[in-house]
Specification:
By secondary structure, this protein is α/β, with parallel strands linked by helices. The chain is built from 8 helices and 7 strands; from the N terminus they run H-E-H-E-H-E-H-E-H-E-H-E-H-H-E.
Length: 254
Amino acid sequence: MDSAGEAFSLAGKVALVTGGSRGLGRAMVLGFARAGADVIITSRKLDACEAVAAEVEATTGRRALAYACHVGRWQEIDGLVEAAYGAFGKVDVLVNNAGMSPPYPRPVDVTEELYDKVLDVNLKGPFRLTALVGTRMSEGAGGSIINVSSTASIRPGPNVIPYAAAKAGLNAMTEAFAYAYGPKVRVNCIMPGPFLTDISRAWDMDAFNRQAQQFALRRGGDPDEIVGAALYFASDASSFTTGAVLRVDGGSRT
């Protein structure tokens, strides 16, 4: 392997990805495994996690642990961390990817339950998981933590107000945790724009394609196109990068 390949290698590493059973999370799980990492896949649905774990083991030969966890529930996160360290003895890479943004007709129609649910999954969960894993990383061999935000955090619309607020908070937490756990732990953030994951099946694609003509790349992203950014932050290739927020949005302006 040449020096460039070595810089992006995850051989001997263990990566934990929340929301890892579909969409961008699944793409990152498979990308990390192909780069040599063993992986922990978590989401609310165990069967979906198990399916990705089986795919990882069959196609890459890496070890994979499937674990069901609702990251919006504080007490469940403790169990996830214990299971991860119990199975592998360490976590070298943590990706806070799980997210949700339920639709609502008007801001006044947002219920307290919906508001709390969105903030819990998108902000509270990443805080607790980063605090637990980051502490262990900083007391051990170090590691890399990657938050997955959204361009809604800097270009919010009226239909995603709680989500945008939570993701803006995640951007802020990225820099704060970088200082809290440096120098042994790097904490960075990927800020995706519109990706054509399973969520996009609910979109009006004709309207989206018209809108995408205003993007620099004139299209939405393929989930696999998140992997390069994730590998950069996860690996030694980004050894002098922390507290950074990287837009991966095809030059979107919306």
